[in-house]
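FORM 7B: Structural annotation worksheet

SECTION A. Query
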Amino acid sequence: MNEIVSADITGQMVLLGTGTSVGVPMLGCGCGVCRSADSKNRRTRCSAILGLPEGNLLIDTSPDMRQQLLREGVGLVHAVLYTHEHADHLFGLDDLRLMQFYLDGPLPLLCEEIVERRIRRSFDYAFASLPNLHAGATPKVEFRRIGPINDGHGAFQVLGAEVTAVRQNHGPNFETLGFRFGGVAYCTDVCAMADESKAVLRGLDVLILDALRRKPHPTHFSLDQAVALAEELGARQTYFTHMSHDLEHEATNASLPEGMQLAYDGLRIPLT
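SECTION B. Predicted structure
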């Protein structure tokens, strides 16, 4: 096998995608944001990757994952951490088939049971006992359970770092996990948090937080709701993510309080 080429992102979180489930530009839309020449208005589906002491930890496998990793020059993923089971956070998984060769074994997937069930149903061919499959025909993965999550949070180790999972509400039917890595937290696909979860997110250097659009939405924070929570939590810097075409980058940033900005694809944040 040829030498593996992968950018060194140790000590950084890279926001691979900052867009909502349909991405920006949105198919068939002629609005100013979807037609914008500003690259910061082009948002692939939501995902991030961290350079931890023992390797690269990918958060979610979006349908745009392959292009995101190529764009950032990251050719090696050592483990995947899942926020929840929805398609825009899951359905790029097959593009990690190469990792079994690079890692000389299965790729660890850290998730809750509900996510594992969705993966096993959606990618059933990866778990079928079929004869005469060639190497690399299916992704080889190893599930590792996140949890237990008690009183809104739970800590665990991955790739030489401690991570704290934070329980989040994602509308009337779903729950998700946010994650804290030292002084940086990543909280997407959320519309409400219990006080126990909020308590884990105080004292942050950087908060990455869901802010879908200006109007209220049943499963995501609106921009005003996200600003209010960011003010309550008091992070030194907040970046908003999982954004629709309703939020033009420069104009929206001009309206935000000090210490708050819209994120953008490719944004690099030091881990503290």
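SECTION C. Observations
The longest strand covers residues 161-169. The CA atoms of residues 151 and 268 lie 31 Å apart.

SECTION D. Sign-off
Analyst initials: ____
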